[in-house]
Specification:
This protein is α+β, with helices and mostly antiparallel strands and 162 residues long. Helices cover 30% and strands 28% of the residues. The protein contains three helices and eight strands. The longest helix has 25 residues. The termini are far apart.
Amino acid sequence: MFFDLVPLGSAASEIRVPVTYRYHLRLSGPWSLEARGRACLVRAPRIRPTLPPAIHTDRMEKRSEAGWLRFDAEDRMAELERSLTPTFSGWAGDPRHLSLVREPCRLRLAEFVRSWLLREDHWRADRFSSVTVVFEDEPGSPPDRPPTLRTEIASPEAPALR
C-alpha cells in the first residue's frame, strides 16, 4: 500500500549508435532479361536486407537515469543492449528503409547490365540504348516505367533517344 501512494520515480536508458544497413539481390532468385526494341527490360528479385546490420559499437553512447527509489537502471540498459540487433534487423526490412535504397540499387543494376551489354557489343545504335529495371515486388507494369538508364547514340540509321 505504501508504494502505491509514494512515487518511486522512473528509470530511463538510452543508447545512441550509428548503424550501417546493407542490401542485396539474390543471384539465385528469379531474373529475366527481355528485349523490347532498343530497350533491355530487367526483371530482378526483390531487394533484401543483409542481416544483421553493422552496429558501430566504437561510437556507441549510453545514458541512464534512475529515480530516487529506482535501482533497475542497469537491468534496463542490459535489456536495451539485447534489443539492438533485433530492432535494427526489423528496421532494415521496413518498407521505409527499403524505399531509401531502391532507386540507387535500380541505377547500379542498370549500370551493371549496360557494362555487360558494352562488353558483348550490344550497347550501340542498332541494338540496345536503354535499360529498365523492375524489382519483383514492385506494383505496376514495366512498360509504364521510364528507362532507368539510357544513352543517346547518334547514327544515321537510328535517331537518338530523348
